Amino acid sequence: MPNQKPNFLSFYKLLCFVLLTDVALVASKSTIEPCSNSDSCNALLGYTLYTDLKVAEVASLFQVDPISVLTANAIDISYPDVENHILPSQLFVKIPILCSCVDGIRKSVSTHYKTRPQDTLSSIADSIYAGLVSADQIREANSIDDPSVLDVGQNLVVPLPCTCFNGTDNGLPAIYLSYVVKPVDTLAGIAASYSTTITDLMNVNAMGGTSITPGDILAVPLSACASNFPKYASDHGLIVPNGSYAITASHCVQCSCGPGSRNLYCMPASLAVSCSSMQCKSSNLMLGNVTVQQSSAGCNVTSCAYSGYANGTIITSLSSSLQPRCPGPQQFPPLVAPPTYVTRDSVFAPAPAPQSDGATTATVPKTSTVPKTSTVPSTGSLPGFPPGGAPFGSLSNASTLMNSAAALPAALVIYLLAQLISPLSL
C-alpha cells in the first residue's frame, strides 16, 4: 500500500509530460511548409483594415503595388484617383505577396514597417497587421533583445505567413490565401466561402479535427488559372485566382481568371504606354484576339495568346485548332466599385456557417460589364519534416488539447480517480 502514492505520482507526471508535449507541438500559429531551395511563388494574405486607409496606404504596409491590391480583389481601377480612394476600417481584402523560401520554410520577408510613437510589437502584430504575425515572430526576425524598447523610426522586418505547395491543390492550379480565423468562423463556413471542402482544408493544414480557434492562420487553397510561360520569362509562374485579375509585362498586359474557368486570358492594358508589339507573328491578330469559323467538321479557332515577358519584349503565340463547337464570348470576373462602407453581407470575407449570426464585413455593388483596361503599374526536405512538401504542424489550438483530454477512455479516468482516492483513504 505505501507504494501506491509514488506510482500514482509517477503516472501523473507522465500524463502531464504527454499533455505538455502536445502543447509544444501545436504552438505554431500557422501552417509550416518546408522548402529546400530559393524559389518563390505568388501567394495571398487575408487582411482586415485596422482603420480607414487609402488604397496606397494599404499597399505601403506590405510594400506592394496599389493597383495589384485592387486587381486581386476585382475592384474597378478605372475610377478617378483610385489609389487615393479611402477604404473603410474592418474591410477584408486580399493582398498579393511573393512567398519565398527562408531558412528552410515558406514565408514572406519583403514587408518592412517603420515604427511610430506608441508602437509596441504587440500593437504592430495584432492591430496594424491584423494578427498575420505575432509579436514574438517580429522580435525574433529583428533580433530584438528588449521588446519594451522600440526606437521611433526603427525599420522592422515583418515576417508574414504564406504557402506555395507547388501552385496546386489536388492536382489542379491553386493559389494559397493565409487567412486569420475570426471568432465567428467555422471550418465549414470558410470552406463554403472559398469553394473548397472541409477535408481539403484539414489536409492542407495538417489538422486532426475540425475545431479552429480565433487567431489561427489557415492556408486556404483558391482555384486559379495558371500560366505556362517559359522559365526565362520574368513572369514565369504567374497564377491568377479565380474571379480576379493580375497586371504584368511592365504595365502593358492584364490577365484574368474568369468565373468557373481555369484558362488564363490576357489582353492589352489599352492605356499603357511604351509597350512592345502585341501582334502575333505571321498574323494580323493582336494579343487577346480570337477568330472562329464554323465548318462541317467543327469550329476552326485561331487565337493570339500571351506567353510571357522577357528582356522588355511581350511574347505572343499564335495557335489554331479544330473544336467540336465554337467557344462563347470571353467571361470576365465581375468588377466591383471601390468600397466606401462596411456591412454584414460581404463579397470579400468568408461567411460563418449558416447557424451563426455573422460578422461585420464589407459589401459593394457589383457590375457585370466587360472590364475597362487602363494604365496600371506592375507588381513587382529538412530533418523532422514529412516527405513530399506536406504541411508540418499548424494550428495553435487550445481546444485541440482539451479535446484530446476529453477523449480519454472513461475507464482510464475512473482508474486515475481510484488511484488518487486510494492513498487518501489510508
Structural commentary:
There is one protein chain. With 426 residues, this protein is an alpha+beta fold. The chain is globular, with a radius of gyration of 26 Å. The model is unreliable at 1-28 and 351-426 (pLDDT under 50). Strands 1, 4, 5, 8, 9, 10 and 11 form a 7-stranded mixed β-sheet that branches. A 3-stranded antiparallel β-sheet has the order 12-13-14. Among the domains are: 40-223, no CATH class; 227-323, no CATH class. Helix content is 21%, strand content 24%. The protein has helices at residues 4-25, 55-62, 66-72, 121-128, 135-141, 187-193, 198-204, 398-406, 410-424; strands spanning 41-48, 53-54, 86-87, 92-102, 105-107, 112-114, 155-157, 168-169, 172-180, 217-226, 239-241, 244-248, 253-257, 265-268, 290-295, 298-310, 313-323, 342-343, 361-362. It comes from Gossypium hirsutum (Upland cotton). Residues 348-385 are annotated as: Disordered. Pfam families: LysM.
